[in-house]
Amino acid sequence: QVRLVESGGGLVQPGGSLRLSCVASGSIFRLNAMGWYRQAPGKQREVVAGISTGGATNYADSVKGRFTISRDNAKNTVYLQMNSLIPEDTAVYYCNCNAQGWWGSRDFWGQGTQVTVSS
Fold first, then answer.
1. Of 45, 58, 67, 116, whose CB neighbour count within 10 A is largest?
2. pLDDT tens, 3-17?
3. Which sign does the torsion angle of CA 30, 110, 22, 54 carry?
4. Are 106 and 99 in contact, with CB atoms under 8 Å apart?
5. pLDDT value at position 28?
6. Distance of CA 2 to the CA centre of its chain
């Protein structure tokens, strides 16, 4: 159906930056909202940021002013620019999208990419 592949995670020092990318592929008629979630060890998965087809964005309070979500509809790709990273941002980051295809409309998830903020 839809495959989401994330990239760009890694180890970064506090105050550093990373840019995550997520490419959607498959039998897609239309990509609707896309977003990023994260899950830290021992914690529930939480929303980080979301973006609509038209580019409207929303952010978790904990990342406002530091993270920026964007998308390239021609490339079926969503990005997350993360600046001023802090240790509390350490988590596995997951890409999510709502897509329409022959199956109707449903959400899909990527496998996740690890982000570690540590000195």
1. 67
2. 999 999 999 999 999
3. positive
4. yes
5. 87
6. 15
Contacts of 97 (CB under 8 A, 6+ apart): 2, 4, 22, 24, 31, 32, 33, 34, 35, 78, 107, 108
Please state whether beta strands 10-12 and 113-117 pair in parallel, antiparallel, or not at all (unpaired). Answer: parallel
Residue 100 CA to residue 108 CA, distance in Å, equals 11
* Mean pLDDT over the full length of the chain: 96
Range 50-58 contact pairs with CB under 8 angstroms and sequence separation of 24 or more: 51/78
Residues 6 or more apart whose CB falls under 8 angstroms from that of 96 comprise 4, 34, 35, 36, 37, 107, 108, 109, 110
